[in-house]
Amino acid sequence: MLKIAIIDDERQVLQGMRRVIPWEELGAEWAGEAMNGEDGLEMVRGIRPDIVITDIYMPSMNGLDMIEQLRKEGYTGKIIILSGYSDFEHARQALRNNVSDYVSKPISVTTLKDILGKVIRELREEKEKNLLQGELTHKLLLYEPFIEKEWVRSAAVGTLDHTYRNREYLPQPYRDWTECSHMVVGIDCVRDIRASELSLSDWSLFRFAISNIACEVAGKIFARAEYTELHSTRAVLIVHPGLEQLGQLEALLQELGLKLIDSIRACLKLSIRVGIGGLKQQWTQIPDSTEEAFRAMDGSGQRMLPAYDLFAYGEQPDRRREAVALFPVKFSFRLAGAMKTAQETEAQQLVAEYMMELEKQTGITKDYIQMLGSELWGIITYCLYESGLVLDELFTNDQIAKELGTLTQPDQLAAWLQTKISAICGSRLWKGSSKHRQVVDFMTHYIHEHFAEELTLAELSDKVYISRNHLSIIFKNITGETFNSYLTRVRIEKARELLLERNMLVYEVAERVGYRNVPYFSTLFKKITGMNPTELIN
User: What pLDDT was estimated at residue 280?
Assistant: First the structure.
């Protein structure tokens, strides 16, 4: 119920107002009364009514002075002046203090009811607007990590709009990018037998594990590093060497690359390639370093150590070789974005434009065309999986492999990709569930950030404003597993990382990842990993 307070130095007016206002009809209640401005000021301070009806001429403090003081103190409720005097100067002062209405006595019951009705409607509309604004602000705060994450990703590949390259538009945590140097370290999982056995759902979890390992390794060498996934099996680390590190930069980067390769192999049994781009002084040059990092690992760089797939970018005199080795980071990123958001026309246009550029290059071999086709198909497959669409019902792996083997020229690859894009977008499986994917992206990110806490689906349903049952269905459809199953796998994966560090006992690791019952934790750990926790620390 809305609260209404009345201030007037005539007791008869106070009693009459309380009697004639249709409280129940207006959805309001009497909150208090006072007979002078000074008492009225104290009453409003204590009660904070939604609406104040006040006279002007009163002892101790007049109504206008009281209103002015209330506004100075931040009172935002509605104020109606009911005065026996009509005075232009008073009306102007009332307007300056944001008074809702200025009415002369005497006033009829009908007029009073109409004025109160109008003010109450305004008040409720404002409350609804504030509530909506509050929900929007809440959502923005919840999704802020995603906004920043997408900004970093776009900054890494060069798809930021020019407007957002001005310092004032940089997200607050990245404003200092304008004052330091930058290098990109590209990471690509090798598609060997081990990797090919992983399901798309497993890839989602393994990518999370790789990001944890990469950030931890980089954090021990450089004061700051940002990790962002690109698509499919590729990701980047953006590092910012300090002035004191420039003299030993090559050794530090070699150490970083070796630890990335060894740590991911030890923890996840996955093989990766690492490419290191050039040092850039301006953050707007980061996309150049990204391209260089992947050129390095694709053949245009120098292998830093014989036994490791660790490459550093360097300009090659053989331009033909460099053209063949170039992998289109920006193009593939934009293609993935277009497919995830169901933009068929944009996806077709991107393919046509890129293949036209590719045809201008010399030295394009059949092997490169087939490698590029395989990479791009992997990107499309994974990004559509992220949008809740699995392509197994449309295309078999054997069919794709056979078709790729027939491609020898850029125009053939272009036609093949465009045919596949049309088939996907025209199929009955195309659900356009990008909004659902955004919700699930938030949920998985929240799980990864808060896995040690008591997380429930009900709690997350409150955060994304979707019913618990519906949210459960959305999560299962897109990830292929239940919320609880995914949370358990994230916790166990993190536990395995902590156990491999051999710095904590089993019960300490269990508590760190959200389990107070150690036997239950051990049972889950063995069920998921196939071994007891103690086997990793002995």
Answer: 94
pLDDT at position 311: 92
Question: Which ranges of 186-248 would DSSP assign to H, the alpha helix?
Answer: 193-196, 200-219
Tell me whether strands 101-104 and 78-83 are parallel, antiparallel or unpaired.
parallel
Q: Which amino acid is at 367?
A: D
Q: Give the residue carrying structure tokens 């990109």.
A: 184
pLDDT score recorded for residue 32: 92
Report d(CA 323, CA 317) in Å as an integer. 11
What six digits make up the tokens of 505?
């006992």
- For residue 335, being part of any structural domain is answered with yes
* Environment class of 251 (CB within 10 Å of its CB; exposed 0-12, middle 13-18, buried 19+): exposed
Exposure letters 178-217 (e unless 16+ CB within 10 A, then b): eeebbbbbbbbbeeeeebeebebbebbbbbbbbbbbbeeb
From 485, 487, 528, 525, select the one nearest 507 (Cα to Cα): 525
The Cα–Cα gap between 138 and 340 comes to 26
What's residue 321's pLDDT?
41
pLDDT of amino acid 49: 94
Domain that holds residue 490: 434-537
445 and 483 in a single domain? The answer is yes
Question: Which residue bears the tokens 């009514």?
Answer: 49
- Does 368 share its domain with 412? yes
Same domain assignment for residues 7 and 104: yes
Tokens of 512: 């760190």
CATH number of the domain encompassing residue 524: 1.10.10.60
Alpha carbon distances (Å) from 427 to 11, 234, 391, 417: 77, 28, 10, 15
Which parts of the chain have pLDDT scores under 50? 140, 143, 316-326, 431-432
So what's the pLDDT on residue 200?
A: 61
Residues near 299 by beta carbon (within 8 Å), at least 6 away in sequence: 321, 324, 325
154 domain residue, yes or no: no
